[in-house]
Amino acid sequence: MDWGKKLIEYYNSNQGAVIGALIGLVIGIAFLVFGFFKVLLIVLCAVLGFYIGKKCK
Length: 57
Prior knowledge:
Blueprint: H1 3-13, H2 15-34, H3 36-56
């Protein structure tokens, strides 16, 4: 089996863990690049936008 098939198989069996790890990696890099409070503001805006969008639907 080549690496591509192994990665796809691992992703399919552990989809939540892989997505969570990638989100954590992106947030960690964002903290390093932008700083804590800027990232906190971005996350707050995203959560607020999600909430408003869900209410308007």
